[in-house]
UniProtKB/TrEMBL annotation, chains A, B, C, D:
Topology with respect to the bilayer: Multi-pass membrane protein
Signal peptide bounds: none
Positions of transmembrane segments: 51-71, 91-111, 123-143
UniProt source species: Hymenobacter nivis
GO biological processes: potassium ion import across plasma membrane; regulation of monoatomic ion transmembrane transport
InterPro entries referenced in this protein's UniProt entry, alphabetically: Ig_E-set, IRK_C, K_chnl_dom, K_chnl_inward-rec_Kir, K_chnl_inward-rec_Kir_cyto
Occurrences of domain Inward rectifier potassium channel C-terminal (ranges): 150-301
Ranges for domain Potassium channel: 72-139
Designated name of the protein: Ion transporter
A molecular function (GO) term: inward rectifier potassium channel activity
Key word Membrane present: yes
GO-annotated cellular components: monoatomic ion channel complex; plasma membrane
Protein location: Membrane
Length: 303, 303, 303, 303
């Protein structure tokens, strides 16, 4: 029988932590390999604060380097700079001229007064416009990267279907106001063998694994009947086998016009037993449907 | 039997309005949820007028802030500014210098004449070029977002097929002159139970649910024979059950090189009985096919 | 039986011209419909020469408008402009200052010397940078639009297979040096009824309708045996029925990382009978395969 | 039986080199064909060093051309340029002014002092901003082009499965830290007939041809049992038949939000017999899985 390992590994020498973090990343570290420079990926994925800090630092360093070059040339090549006032003032004067060239402001109260300064400032002007061309692309790349903001219920629940059968459920909603289309979900369970620490995977079929839209909430239901790999297991068994319910969700984002993928997982401490979800949407008095994202986690004891 | 709910909800405490608006949006309001900031989505989706207004206001605010900073520093740091003429004139002078720095025009009749002004104007020049880098990305993102401009006939009709069977029909055409490829359509009907207000959905299979191209018009036909969930229903039944015919159309846009999705719906007041569509295209005298978009809604009484 | 109309129409009052032009566009004109403004699509699709002409004209018009505004304000607001020399010289002076502001060059030998000129030039600087932000997006959009440059053989041929059966063949190659992946082809034939002018379509199945790559050439083969809608037809029949062989080709472009679609069609005058293709690739002396695009149309008489 | 040629050719007059190079490109040369200008593709695909060199050279040439135009006009039209000092100094002065206009720095110590210089510098400013608009698009296009950095094991191995059957194996890992989703692999073998030099292809089915993720390593296994086209062949047979194992790998890149394709191939000298892979991942003491890319090629003798 073909393995159902989704690519997360089956043989480890000891217990592993959860495979999927709550932000959808994998609990994996990487070592070795040929050195790889992915400045674009790095600059696209880093947080905004760090991005602007790196841009600012790079801007300062580049301009400081050009300022030092102007100083090496001699500030007498930059008419308009006040008479020498020591290293610090000279550096600042050269730095300000450099920034005015780099950003193409070019007030002109200081200007290149020799061939050397003309050539150096020409080079800097080119470097400057190309640098901001790069920054433009990076900013667009950061902004336009489609990222689904699927909100998963913090707990999965073991509930009961209308026919009395137990089932595993969790809910999702769209954190954003934009439109998600053609959602499909796939759920697998990861077991760890208590003795060998070997890991095995099994699919958890859903009563319904696709919806056309997600304007409200979507409750995903896995039947815990005899066909389920979780059939008959109790909370203690979940813990003993290190159960991890791994959810993969694909959708099409109408704003970005691209497919987006989300991942989430539930470990035993995030599974509530004998509960059911309260409905998180209803219709307002004007006949318009209304979804309450704050109620996504609302559950109640099964009667 | 698995529910056919496309994700629009099945249980509401009272009658709901139509699920899909004519612009393809959902008739759903959202409340609660973790706060989410999607400036990109907001700036991409807002109308052009509002976009340019927000850009203009932000431009003014940023430059006013820098102008106040230059004033706090003292306008004597900006040689070329006329002697002080009161708060308003000073603010305007500082504002104009700020704009000249922010946009990197830098005429230079006013220029930073001290280290403080040099540093502040350097910062402003950087903020300025980055702001316009952002604006560049936003403008491109707004322009390049693929949006299908599928024109749906304003009414669906209940007509008769060549074999005498009744059928439900509506037509679509491409409002744009660009090329749409590989169109696929899916139609479902939404019923509301008059007593419980519960909602149910059923698929309406089409005689043909895909075409390769859409240069002319495409008439979508659902057979109302015994196999249809609408079989035997009359206009009054449509109204009593709050019928909503929901259309989902997917196509590939050859200009944007991306899939685009359209949605539309017909409610009972938008369904005409006993009519047929007049052909909306023909061939001109030079042998070239010609489509008349104004005739998309042209119907005539069934004989 | 469901129609095989790919969306090009079946009922016309007289003979139509070919449905697909050699550049892949449809032979269709459009009339009426709600007015639709697609400046992006228009600016993306127009030829480069026209694009730069429109950009140049818009640039001139915008700057002329600002120049007139500066003149209305009075050129005494622009210190540095020479004393008045008549309308033409004044306009030129204002125009040059306008361009220097619009493009953010801002030499500064002319500068805004009043609040009115300061405000107007601030507005123009903003309009200027936003205009070039737009131009940046448009240039990128034009450049990055994936367009397959599939080269179709100018003729389709009626040839003979190894087993003696007649077959219809045509060849394609990639005009570009980039890599096309996962090509799939679909071929249909369009017949016109000589009497009614009604049009019908039929699929022409291919011996092989997909290849993984297209580094060399790909010969598409339709078996003209008993199963073919063209079985037994001769050249005269092709002409009498206005046969048009319509080819739809989809591939994935590894440079643009996007699907690209090509269309082509063969009419009776573009079909050669009783010929076979000469091989258009071979291996060079260093063991490297070599494709000769000039030989794509090379055919020889069947022996 | 339909050919399995993936599009790489079947009939050659002599032995060919490997079809797929290690960088995924095809071992194919192209000749003839209508001339095609793909500046975008060329500029997107060239190495960074060459890209910046071409940008620099173009920048110099354009500015030199404008410098010559200013000289033809007469440098007396550019007040601020020092008195004539011979051709070289005049050219440099004009060049520096040109760069200051092209990059929109515009210090203003030199400025256009006549209508001719005003018009020429206006044109140059427009050309300059459009050129940098183009450069912005190109830089973004280069950066944002999704390229999978799949690391293939340098050797494929002939190993033994738990059931004792021989199998062909190779491994892949993701060189990057980003997330690859929904990987699918297809493997074919290319044989060359020693006598006719004709080439034939056969599919090599995998025990598992898809994984959901690739955070660790993925070992692809082809069963060399009776069903395999390689069944019973020894190393000498591989060499005699010029075996080439061709791997096609498709995945979805979560950073670029696009599908990416990788190709690789193994020739007889890159196939090791009677070995097995050592596991390249394990769990660290903190329970986090750890993959060691340097161990991707680690194999050991079969016992």
């Amino acid at each position: 029988m073909a393995s159902l390992d989704p690519g997360i590994g089956e043989k480890f020498s000891q217990r592993t932590q959860r495979a999927i973090n709550h932000d959808g990343s994998f609990n994996v570290r990487r070592r070795g390999g040929p050195p790889i420079h992915d400045p674009y990926q790095r600059l696209i994925l880093m947080p905004w604060g760090r991005f602007f800090t790196e841009v600012g630092v790079l801007f300062l360093l580049l301009n400081a380097a050009f300022a030092l070059a102007y100083m090496a040339l001699g500030l007498e090549n930059l008419p308009g700079v006040a008479a020498p006032h020591g290293w610090v003032q000279d550096f600042l004067s050269a730095l300000f001229f450099s920034v005015q060239t780099f950003t193409s402001v070019g007030y002109g109260h200081v200007y290149p007064g020799s061939n050397g300064a003309g050539a150096l400032s020409s080079l800097e002007a080119l470097v400057g416009v190309l640098t901001f061309a790069l920054a433009t692309g990076l900013l667009y790349g950061r902004f336009s990267r489609p990222t689904a903001r699927i909100l998963f219920s913090r707990v999965a629940i073991v509930s009961r279907q209308p026919n009395g059968q137990p089932c595993l459920q969790f809910r999702v909603a769209n954190r954003r106001a934009n439109i998600l289309i053609e959602l499909t979900a796939q759920v697998i369970v990861k077991f760890t063998d208590a003795a060998t620490k070997n890991i095995s995977y099994a699919a958890l079929p859903l009563e319904r694994d696709a919806v056309s839209f997600l304007p409200l909430t979507w409750t995903l239901v896995h039947d815990l009947g005899p066909g389920s790999p979780l059939h008959g297991l109790q909370a203690a068994d979940y813990a003993a086998r290190d159960v991890e319910i791994i959810v993969m969700l694909k959708s099409y984002d109408d704003t970005f016009a691209q497919d987006v993928y989300s991942r989430y997982s539930y470990i035993p401490s995030e599974i509530a037993w004998h509960r059911r979800f309260r409905r998180a949407y209803d219709v307002a008095s004007d006949g318009i449907a209304e979804v309450n994202l704050d109620a996504l986690d609302d559950t109640e004891e099964l009667s």
